[in-house]
Amino acid sequence: MEQIKLFCPATIANLSCGFDVLGLCLDTIGDEMIVSKTANKGIRITKITGADLPLETINNVAGVAAMAMLDEIQPDFGIEIDIHKKIKAGSGIGSSAASAAGAVFGINELMGKPFSRKELVRFAMKGEALASGSEHADNVAPALVGGFTLVRGYDPLDIIKIDSPSELFATVIHPQIELKTSEMRAVLEPLVSLKSAIKQWGNLGGLIAGLYTSDYDLIHRSLHDEIVEPLRGKFIPKFELIKGIALKSGALGAGISGSGPSIYALSKGLETAEKVAFEINKAYLDTGIPFEIHVSKINSEGIKIIN
Amino acid sequence: MEQIKLFCPATIANLSCGFDVLGLCLDTIGDEMIVSKTANKGIRITKITGADLPLETINNVAGVAAMAMLDEIQPDFGIEIDIHKKIKAGSGIGSSAASAAGAVFGINELMGKPFSRKELVRFAMKGEALASGSEHADNVAPALVGGFTLVRGYDPLDIIKIDSPSELFATVIHPQIELKTSEMRAVLEPLVSLKSAIKQWGNLGGLIAGLYTSDYDLIHRSLHDEIVEPLRGKFIPKFELIKGIALKSGALGAGISGSGPSIYALSKGLETAEKVAFEINKAYLDTGIPFEIHVSKINSEGIKIIN
To answer: How far are the Cα atoms of A22, A102, A133, A159, A283 from residue A142, in angstroms, in the given order?
Structure first.
């Protein structure tokens, strides 16, 4: 294989009680990437459409992730990458992760799959470090592995794919305002009350159990964030209103996607997810803030090869 | 039915990363209780063997739990309870919970089961409040429901039974020293670092996933307590030594049972659980502290009716 074309999906990280550990992979929104072998060694980002991003390999998340991988495997060929961005930068649905994950997935395919999808996560994390300053797997893990993905820990990196019911759909609204990940990190309190932390891990336990047993009501009861949402929600215009509308429209739960500004809702069934989208859309028009809404089933596979 | 004889099992609460939310039910150690209908209304504790506990209903955890239940259902008969304690008070394996759970389970059976096992938890919690000053479900939930039991939250009370693999066995050592639950609570810090809390809920997510998928290695990787064990472990003589021996002997994980002084280990297979018991026994003899060791499969059923 000399060239491969990929669908690199958007992802939702920080799923309420699963802050910093639980994410999921979307299916209807994602970038396209073409990864090609070249005779000349090294990595070149040859084309970027849809976003104003640096072409220099060392300043591009896809380039940096690819470099980390090639540095380890030292192939006797080079790589060219075309990136067609559809996920907006700064949206909170894993734009940089899609690029980083796509690059390493593509190279792995061109090399005959020396690594599993899980094993690719550590390379993709190098791209995330360029984008956000920290090597986190919150988005690259679901992008690569698909479905719901738990990052149990980093020492060593431990990625667990969580079985989930097929009837879960996500609704995502992206209010197009700028929220810096670094600023959203700064609003976090370094200390939390033990009482809140216990509630949080009780809910995470419930959420994981609900996913394994397709217990939608348990998923609903568990989708709360005691700790981070109260601090970050206020930076997202109309967050509480939108969350309330999502729940009133039948969503199982709603919260901040990643570090925002996107807001996600999870619903049982496409019809409910679309109703949530419809009602949110109606309410958000009043704000005057430009926004996009996506409805998607959970992408259980992760990155896909397309023709 | 006029009389029922019960096996009321010991339980392990605060399972490492599942502090305050996750417990399990044991099978080889438990009290026996006989609960009988009487023509005279009211509740009488008629006999207690094996422990020096108050016979007065309002001062006895079984009595108080039974009162909470009868107060709600107002039956036209009374109840007599005989308690044969085998679980030592203050052991950290749910001695008071066994009595509270047994009383309400027995009454429920004599009444034709108006309540499910889960619904009985809230009555049994009233007994726990007498014993420890707080209405917690950590031990009464696994005693009543069996298996691994998650207390997702208290508002409203939400008990979830977690599927678990059949090959899990517990080893418990009870060093016979006195540790007051109230004192062990006082050593907890009201604030914890967000970083530790995230590690804890990552591990709890991993543990729940490991239980559902019978992934013993994941259970092993997840059985850590970042928050409470470092504070409480030092009050239990040779805690670190015993934990180390358990892990070296092949246990998947080990930690404090309840608020101590008992130490639990979980192993795959009876043979390993017995090896853990053997090695711990050998090491603990040197301390001069009296102790008991139990090996048990997980009791997936909870309280049992016996003849």
So the answer is: 9, 12, 20, 9, 30
Retrieve residue A245's tokens. Answer: 């509308």
Rounded to an integer, the average pLDDT of A265-279 is 98
| Continuous segment of H or E residues that includes residue A275 | helix A270-285
Burial of A16 (0-12, 13-18, 19+ CB in 10 A): buried
- CA A8 to each of CA A135, A170, B246: distance values in angstroms, whole numbers, following the listed order: 19, 17, 45
Q: What is the pLDDT of residues B224-283, one digit of tens each?
A: 999 999 999 999 999 999 999 999 999 999 999 999 999 999 999 999 999 999 999 999
> Domain range holding A46?
3-163+301-306
Helix axis angle, B239-248 to B270-285, nearest 10°: 140
Residues A157 and A195 in one domain: no
A213 and B163: CB-CB below 8 Å? yes
Report the complex ipTM. 0.96
The reply to whether A174 and A280 lie within a common domain is yes
Residue B116 buriedness (CB in 10 A; 0-12 / 13-18 / 19+): exposed
Q: Are residues A175 and A236 in the same domain?
A: yes
Question: Which of B184, B208, B226 to probe the A interface (max A CBs under 10 A)?
Answer: B208
Q: Which of B153, B193, B222 sits opposite A152 (nearest CB)?
A: B222
- A53 & A187 share domain: no
Asked if the Cβ–Cβ distance from A221 to B152 is below 8 Å, we say yes
Catalytic residue of the set A11, A32, A128, A171:
A128
Is the same domain home to A117 and A227? no
pLDDT, chain A, mean? 96
Measured at the alpha carbon of residue A166, what is the angle toward residues A163 and A168, in degrees to the nearest 5? Answer: 100
pLDDT in tens, A188-229: 999 999 999 999 999 999 999 999 999 999 999 999 999 999
B197 DSSP assignment: H
Cα–Cα dist B55/B46, whole Å? 7
Reported as half-sphere exposure (CB side, CA atoms, 13 A), residue B184 has a value of 24
A208 with B203: Cβ contact below 8 A: no
| Segment A32-51, tens digit of pLDDT | 999 999 999 999 999 999 99
Q: Which residues of B touch A162 (CB under 8 A)?
A: 205, 209
Q: What is the pLDDT of residue A185?
A: 86
Q: Both B13 and B115 in a single domain?
A: yes
Percent of chain A with pLDDT strictly greater than 90 = 95
Is the pLDDT at B180 greater than 80? The verdict is no
Residue with tokens 């899980």: A118
Read off the pLDDT of residues B115-165 as tens digits, 9 standing for 90 and up.
999 999 999 999 999 998 889 999 999 999 999 999 999 999 999 999 999
| A90-117 pLDDT per residue, tens | 999 999 999 999 999 999 999 999 999 9
A18 and A60 within one domain: yes
Number of structural domains found in chain B:
2
Q: Containing H/E element for A295?
A: strand A291-297
